Amino acid sequence: MQIDKQQIIDHLKGKGDQDKADQAQSDLPDKVDTDKDSGLLSKLGVNVKDLMGKLPGGLGG
Q: Residues annotated as region Disordered (predicted)?
């Protein structure tokens, strides 16, 4: 699934992880593929399932 980089940055900022949000800004592509970029997301401490549950539209479970 593809997610806008900004949504991930906002998620990290919401958790108080400004340093990781800054890192995401520089490391992630504009459209993040949760499968292809799972290594980067993991490095940033982003749990894809948690993120999906917080996205608008009820994409998560």
A: 9-37
